[in-house]
Structures are given as structure tokens and as C-alpha cells.
Amino acid sequence: MKHLRTTSSGGLVVAILGLTLIVSSIPLSATNGYLIHGIGTRAKAMAGAGVALPLDALSAGTNPAAIAWLGKRYDAGLGLFNPNREYTITGNPSGFPGTFGLAPGNVESDATLFFVPNFGGVWKLSGHSAWGLALYGQGGMNTEWPTRTFGGSQPTGVDLSQLFIVPTYATKFGNEHHAIGISPIIAFQTFEATGLQAFAGFSSDPANLTNKGHDTSTGFGAKIGYLGQLTDNFSIGLAYQTEISMEELGDYAGLFAEQGGFDIPSNYVAGIAYKFGTGAVFALDYQEIFYTDVASVSNPFSSLLPPSFGGTGPVPLGAANGAGFGWQDMSVIKAGFEWGGAPWTWRLGFSTGDQPIPPSEVLFNILAPGVMEEHFTIGFTRELGSGNRAFSFSLMHAPSVSVSGANRLEAPGAQTITLEMDQWDLEIGYTWGI
Fold it and tell me: CB atoms < 10 A from the CB of 209, how many?
């Protein structure tokens, strides 16, 4: 890990421009559940690996301690995200009294292309400390089915976007071989649901269930990180992000558990980086995402159903124990490799994890089919010479994954629901002010 040179420039103006760009465009991506696979163009090219490897100003989003090893710099990125989602209903409705059959066939989501910006800056305070600002988003509970999927209005779907503003302070200690960093997190989210009128009879608040437009909420959390250079070649990193407590989405108090609660789950990352004598670097991270922190995400669909349908309810939607999406915690392993030198640095990566949706939860997850498991990534950085500028590129492909299960509101064996998705993500980044 090298020290980067510092220069002076108008950082505050740049930060404000970056914030404006982010806030104005936050339709976001679903990769590891609904967390993005990497934060920043360079990290994305390594499948998100890098908790022990400072890459750019966006590294603070992975590990706040990383910026202690960076000089003054700015990094901005713009991604083009392409999630291809579809569901298939196999089998005709039974027509039995009390059942809720879906129209058989295959449906593809109309929402397939999104532009996703990010921005980060680092400013040195002294030889051993720095502060930074990172702005990035995640989301991905975004579907737009061009059908009356549940018999309500058309289109049917949801739209969730989340924006994080992450100021960071980091300092070195122990002969400057170790660093800690802390980041308060300010989070904004927007949500909309359409086409869910058929669930009004299951809701504690039918007037605040669906088709209410975009509701917004704000919340706060924190992230703390450590990065240590144990030898000239070997470093370790650890980072923990708290659960982010968000204001309730009151316009959807009859949909989400806890009267519209939709907090952001906690997660931690631990990893290593090893620098070979050739200058190449291998990074390996392990991440655990605690979706079970959030009732509206993890509560099982069975709480909506009476025992005659194999449930434990009925508990109405919007209640404290109301049905959610049934997501489980997710473990992700990320590996990245970087090699080369000025002016070209090359990267590739791979990540894998078990997707969070069990077969028993496919009905509600027609709205949010976050089923991705593997990500293959490549990328590079090209230094541009004068002005200490650089151009970066990353490309991610997540191969198609599917999960199938029964329609829990139908007679046993009558209908099977299959959710399927694949993804592409292309991002370009620009660095200046080094």
C-alpha cells in the first residue's frame, strides 16, 4: 500500500457537486441481496474485495480506516446497471374457495437499465490522519411487471432506493502500521409499491398499502473499521456497520411490518491483502449481512397464513409480526486480484454467496427477486499523466440464478413460482487531485 501525493484544491465545492449528482439519480442495484457487490469503480472490478486494501476515496464505504493510507484525492464514478428479472407461474389456478391463484405464464420486468453515480473525497489532516466523504447508493427492490400480477392495478412492483452520505475520520497509530476509522452514516431512502390491492383484506391498514406514490425516510447509523499492515506484504482489515434505524414509511404502514418499518441491516467484513514481490496484490474478504435484523425483510410469509394453509397466523400485514419477504442472513466470499503498474493497473474478481430467498418465500418475492449468488468482474485503471488524473473501468456479470417454490395461497401442488435474474454492471470512474 503506497502513500499518495497531496495537492490543494477546492474540495468543498467538489463534494457539494458530488452530493447533487448522487441525490438527483438514485435508482439502484440488487446484487448481494440488495447490497451492492462493491463500493467504487476499483472495488467493483475486484468483486468488492478490499477491506484490507485502500483503493480510492470510496474505500471508506468498505472500511473507514482505509483512507488513512490515502492522500488528498477525489474519485467519481458512473455505472450502468442492467438487472434482467423474470418470474414464471406453472400450473393453472385450482379455483378452490379461499385460494389465490396467479395467471400462468412468464413475465419479464420492464425496469432493466439504471444509471448509478458515486463520489468520494479524501483530505489529509496530518501525516497520520485524514477525513473523507463518500456518497453512494444501494437498493434493488425494484420491479415493474407489465401485468396485473396479483389482480390489482398495472404495472405491479416496488421501487426501493437508498442513499448513504458517509463522512469519515481515520488515523494511524503503532508506528503508523495500524489505523482505525469511524464513519457516522446518514441514510435516505424512497419506496413505492403498486398493484397490491388484492392484499387489502390481509392488511392492518389497507389505506396505506399500495399505490401511494414514493414515500421517503431518513435514518442514522455508523461504521467502524481497522486496517493493519502486519508486514510489508501482508495486511488485514475489519469493518462493522451498525443497523441503520430509519423513520417509518407511513404511506406503507399497511404493507411493511412494524407499521412501515424498513431499517437497513447491519453487516461486517473481514479480510486480508497480500502484496507479491512483483507488485501484484491478492485480496480476500468475508462478509456477513444480517437481513434478519429487519422484520419487514425477514419475517416469513407464513405469518400471513392460517394453519390450514401451513401458516402460523393470520397476522395482518403492517403488524409487528406481519409478513415480510422471508429473507435469511447472507454470507459472501469475495476474492480480487490486482496487477500491473504505471500507467496500467489491471483487476479481476469473483464473489459467491447463498442467495437469501428460500423456496417457501417466492410468492411475495415476485416483488423483490434478489436471488444473485455469483459475480465475475474485470477492470483496469489508466493513469493519464498530467494533473495526476486516472480513468478506471469495471465490468460485472452475475450469471442467471433461479429459485422455485409453491404458491402458498393455492391448493397444494396447484402452482409453482420460479424467480430468475441475471445482471450486468458497467462502471467508469475518474480520479483527480492526487
Answer: 24
Q: Which H or E run includes 35? A: none
**Residues with Cβ within 8 Å of residue 235, at least 6 apart in sequence:** 1, 52, 53, 227, 228, 229, 272, 273, 274
Cα gap 318→296, rounded to integer Å: 9
**What is the 3-state secondary structure of 215-275?**
EEEEEEEEEEEEEEECCCCEEEEEEEECCEEECCCHHHCCCCHHHHCCCECCEEEEEEEEE
Amino acid letter, 96: F
Stretch (H or E) spanning 140: strand 129-142
User: Which set of grid coordinates corresponds to residue 221?
Assistant: 447509523
Helix (H), strand (E) counts: the chain: 4, 16
* Residue 366 grid coordinates: 415476485
pLDDT classification of 139: cutoffs 50, 70, 90: low
Is residue 2 one of the residues assigned to a domain?
Answer: no
Tell me the whole-structure pTM to 2 decimals. Answer: 0.91
Q: Is residue 422 part of a domain?
A: yes
Residue 419 lies in a domain: yes
User: The domain containing residue 109 runs over which residues?
Assistant: 11-432
Which H or E run includes 338? strand 330-341
- For residue 21, name the pLDDT band (cuts at 50, 70, 90): very low
Rounded CA-CA distance 120/430 in Å is 11
Residue identified by cell 438514485 is 26
Tally of structural domains, the chain: 1
Q: Which residues pair with 391 in a beta bridge?
A: 382, 430
